[in-house]
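tokens incoming
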């Protein structure tokens, strides 16, 4: 019972810290011109929107963990075998590297090569501390390679999902809370506390990120959140599940971000578009075509993610059949999303999307502006047809 209270307090600390910090960092971003400015092309929001939201989430997580984690106690009495300070410290250092890399990209537009090098550096910190895949018996080099791919996939999947006000933090908050519950159920206090801190910070950021957004996460926030979720998945002990469950459960905790990646690439390939160029086939855009409002999109996606997280926790307790049903559900969901209506590129749009340069190479809008935030739920506002366009400079690897 004491552990549950401790986790709940950590969640509240993260929530409160982000609610306090985010508006102040948004004000500072506007004062110094660190904003996502409309450009009349892809970025069609009504007014500049402040960045530095990811910095607020990062600081909120650190503040809550600084008060919650028993630093200096190598073997706390409540979980002597599970709490290993070197791994927790490595996760926080790697998260700091992800956040710093994203912040540099938000401010100066890093090349794809520099982004990948920075992300691999963060992963190297984790591997050095022994945070790697432990689900199956395999040789150490294979564990390292798969662990690196997993962390990079998680970080960039959340980055890719962050195209709509409140969407990424809503979904990430659900996943983080799921990891907190998993940590409590397996006796892993470190996972429970980190998951609770991240969930609180994510949902606290909704105070300024819900539609219409006053502040964006930016790459510094989406990379930090996605990277930390990937680390939590590697940390997890999936006791009680079958061999299949130990593979499916971590994926289920990232179900919606991975579904976004899968359906987006398949949709672009189906239409003959470059899968690594921006288009209007994100899940949020498709749901907008169906008539969902800017506030309904993150709510529905959060509920879908809650179903996958709940299914993963249920499957770990009820065996292979439940876990297999969860995997089939994810595949079906990807198929449904792929064929939801979306605005198809026509004429000049198709040529622009196929010939455009890497969006990540375009400079950020840095201007002085005191106008109110954009009124659209999409990161780049809405085009005349009512479909939100992805931000030109928003994705770490050019999605």
């Amino acid at each position: 019972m004491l552990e549950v209270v401790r986790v709940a307090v950590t969640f509240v600390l993260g929530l409160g810290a982000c609610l306090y910090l985010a508006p102040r960092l948004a004000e500072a971003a506007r004062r110094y011109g660190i904003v996502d400015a409309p450009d009349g092309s892809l970025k069609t929001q009504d007014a500049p929107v402040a960045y530095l939201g990811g910095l607020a989430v990062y600081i909120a997580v650190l503040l809550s963990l600084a008060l919650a984690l028993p630093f200096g106690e190598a073997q706390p009495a409540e979980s002597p075998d599970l709490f290993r300070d070197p791994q927790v410290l490595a996760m926080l250092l790697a998260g700091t590297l992800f956040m710093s890399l994203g912040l540099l990209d938000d401010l100066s537009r890093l090349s794809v090569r520099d982004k990948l090098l920075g992300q691999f550096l963060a992963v190297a910190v984790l591997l050095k501390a022994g945070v790697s895949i432990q689900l199956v018996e395999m040789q150490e080099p294979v564990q390292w390679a798969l662990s690196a791919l997993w962390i990079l996939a998680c970080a960039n999947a959340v980055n890719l999902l962050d195209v709509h006000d409140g969407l990424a933090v809503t979904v990430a908050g659900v996943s983080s809370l799921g990891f907190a519950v998993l940590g409590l159920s397996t006796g892993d206090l470190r996972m429970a506390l980190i998951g609770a801190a991240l969930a609180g910070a994510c949902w606290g950021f909704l105070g300024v990120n819900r539609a219409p957004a006053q502040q964006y996460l930016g790459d510094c926030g989406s990379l930090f959140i996605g990277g930390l979720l990937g680390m939590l998945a590697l940390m997890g002990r999936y006791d009680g599940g079958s061999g299949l469950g130990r593979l499916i459960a971590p994926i289920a905790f990232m179900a919606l971000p991975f579904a976004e990646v899968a359906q987006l690439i398949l949709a672009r390939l189906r239409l003959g578009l470059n899968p690594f160029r921006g288009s209007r086939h994100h899940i949020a855009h498709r749901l907008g075509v169906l008539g969902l409002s800017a506030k309904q999109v993150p709510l529905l996606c959060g509920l879908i993610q809650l179903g996958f997280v709940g299914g993963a926790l249920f499957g770990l307790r009820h065996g292979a059949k439940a876990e297999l049903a969860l995997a089939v559900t994810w595949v079906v969901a990807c198929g449904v999303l792929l064929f939801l209506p979306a605005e198809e590129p026509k004429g000049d749009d198709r040529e622009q999307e196929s010939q455009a340069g890497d969006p990540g190479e375009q400079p950020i809008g840095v201007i002085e502006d005191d106008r109110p935030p954009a009124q659209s739920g999409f990161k780049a506002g809405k085009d005349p047809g009512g479909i939100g366009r992805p931000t030109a400079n928003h994705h770490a690897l050019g999605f």
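note: The first helix runs from residue 2 to 31.
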